[in-house]
Amino acid sequence: MNFNSKMKDIKNYEAGKPIELVVREFGIEPKDIIKLASNENPNGCSKKVQDGVSKIISKMALYPDDSMIALKSALSKRFDVGVSNVIIGSGSDQVIEFLIHAKANSESKILMNSITFAMYEIYAKHVGAEILRTSSQEHDLDEFYKIYKEEKPSIIFLCTPNNPTGDAIEATKLFEFLKKIDSDTLVVVDGAYMEYALVKDSSKEVKPKDLVEEFDNVIYLGTFSKAYGLGGMRVGYGVADAKIIKELYKLRPPFNITTLSLEAATIALGDEEFVNKSVVNNFNEMKRYEEFAKEQKIDIINSYTNFVTLCLNPNQISSVIADLLLKKGMIVRDLSSYGMNAIRVTVGTQEQNSRFFELASEIL
Ligand SMILES: *Cc1c(COP(=O)(O)O)cnc(C)c1O
Prior knowledge:
Structural class: alpha/beta
CATH class of the largest domain: Alpha Beta
Largest sheet: 7 strands, mixed
Bound molecules: pyridoxal-5'-phosphate
């Protein structure tokens, strides 16, 4: 059968290997497997969320509230924006899908960082758009601007902090950049790890409200999958000018968020103590990774997230190292498909990290 010609160009997203797969492939007991590959919260999720969700479990027969008013109101209060400035997606991934479909087509160009979140490219290819990339590893906004001037992309993606490298853009520089972009270019500020960045260094904090007040061409993305510990519930959101949100709504399938997920996210947003604790633990444990890298004489990128990127030495091939770790039940992310000889490791619990240091020092 022949498919849409754009399909040839699309590669599957390579998700972090699930624990179940390692059990089957290597015959390792699930209890001996540690997954530090998808930047999930190692502390799980808030107990309040678990209690709240179990209370409404009997509501499963009914379709969810498609207005999503409880979660939208909670987000609008949290960020001090209007309800009409918010859209909820099945993960912020789905919001990325909506906005590319709403804004771009096969004649469009989409600009992104040389190394960044893989889903931007995959969704761009859905519509056959041309992908433009900068050359530097970190976001270089001067280079972004230069390419913007020459190529007139219809969408610009800025991921801050960036996945899979963990570095973040200075908020003042970001705003200076946005002021120079014309109002018909959609700029996406993906803040999937913003809850971490703002604690480590407030100069990296980008507030959705500031974006919405100043720009009608910028959308901020956030997710419950990382700091909130709800990766399995699939809830993310976009915050933007109401005119953008209205367009995105045209592409939203009805009931795209389940009743249980809506409840989980709404409660999670209210449990700030859980998030704060997670973030503090994260940076305490991250110090151990910095020490480990020093001991091993490998480079570590200064990270504003819940993962670290270890840039290996030339005699240490990242795909080989990741495979050797996998055979011992330690799942990390090899970044060779991003053109880096590096591995990305999610900062886990104290015990998980200790195990990583033990195995990695044997292997390296
Ligand atoms: C994890 C992540 C997302 C979205 O995750 P969802 O689970 O779909 O909400 C978006 N952007 C970046 C950079 C991420 O790392």
